[in-house]
Amino acid sequence: MRLGLVLGEALQGLRRNASMVVSVILVTFVSLTFVGAAVLMQTQIAKTNAYFQDRALVDVYMCSPLSTGDTCVDGAASDEQIETVRTELEGPTLSPLIQGYTYLSPEEAYDSIVENLGEDYASLLTAEQTSAEFHVNLVDPSQSDVIVEAFTGVDGVEEITDQLEYLDPLFATLTIATYIAIGIAALMLVSAVLLIATTIRLSAYARRREVAIMRLVGASNRFIQTPFVLEGVFAAFIGAALAGAAVLAGVHFGVERYLVDEMYAIPWVGIGEAWAVVPVLIVVGVALAALSAGFAIRRWLRT
């Protein structure tokens, strides 16, 4: 097979169907951009989940003088009640589940609140009104229910909270956004496949006399089909390359230049993960184009 002749025929076909080729490029670009966004969002979910699971704590809040719960009938937790919680955390039942814990006295908890929320809160709350706290770091954060169950209803314990529960809405939002991106990407990919097939069939129809002559002189079906397949592959490759560039630009300017500075507490995906997605987009785009174009031209040649 003469490579130069095949490439020449493919390029000539691209010039003849410039408007359709531009449409294929744009549809491929948009669809694969959504694919890249979906992949990066799934990576972001996994990265954020792993980060916060390693750092999420179960907080055991002791009763304060302001507490009114059934376990706080005597007001602030006594030293004996605090020591009971400490002993339970260090006991044989819970200690294998616990990586470590931190105890904050009411004064330390008050200083932490003022430091994190600002001096404006200093006039709203005093150290005497603040509850003592235990911050428990688990070996396996999924076993937080064990800690919650162990201290629920214990005298002197006002509340037990699992910090991972506060992150569930974030993960749910990211997951929904990922599904939306996947759905849009799937629809756009179907559109791209159909558009490529239509473009190839129109291109073959416009060159039907050339194809008939090639058949008369004994050209093989493979030789006839290859230029048409390459037309779809070239257009899809350009669209995939543009999608890769869009993903890289989005991560660089949207994430590294903005989100990292605005929300630095979250480990965001970086340019390295974006570069890893680019080859996937190109392979997906080229493979779909080759399959779609090959199927379309084979069907047309059989008619």
Description:
The chain is rod-shaped, with a radius of gyration of 31 Å. The chain contains nine helices and four strands; from the N terminus they run ααβαβαβαβαααα. Helix 1 (3-16) packs across helix 8 and helix 2 runs antiparallel to helix 6 (163-206). Helices cover 70% and strands 8% of the residues. It is of the alpha+beta class and 303 residues long. It folds into two domains: 3-52 and 168-302, no CATH class; 57-163, 2-Layer Sandwich (Alpha-Beta Plaits), CATH 3.30.70.3040. The protein has a four-stranded antiparallel sheet with strand order 2-3-1-4. Residues 58-160 form the FtsX extracellular domain. Belongs to the ABC-4 integral membrane protein family. FtsX subfamily. One of its GO terms (biological process) is cell division.
Largest sheet: 4 strands, antiparallel
Strand content: 5-15%
Q: In total, how many beta strands?
A: 4
Low-confidence stretches: none
Instruction: Report the structural category.
Output: alpha+beta
Number of spatially distinct domains: 2
Helix content: 55-70%
* Distance from first to last alpha carbon: 24 Å
User: Order of helices and strands, N to C?
Assistant: HHEHEHEHEHHHH
Order of the strands making up the biggest sheet: 2-3-1-4
Taking all Cα atoms into account, the compactness measure Rg is 31 Å
How much is the average pLDDT? 81
Could you say which overall geometry the principal axes of the C-alpha atoms support?
Answer: rod-shaped
Number of helices: 9
Keywords, separated by commas or semicolons:
FtsX_ECD, single chain, cell cycle, alpha+beta, Alpha-Beta Plaits, 4 strands, 303 residues
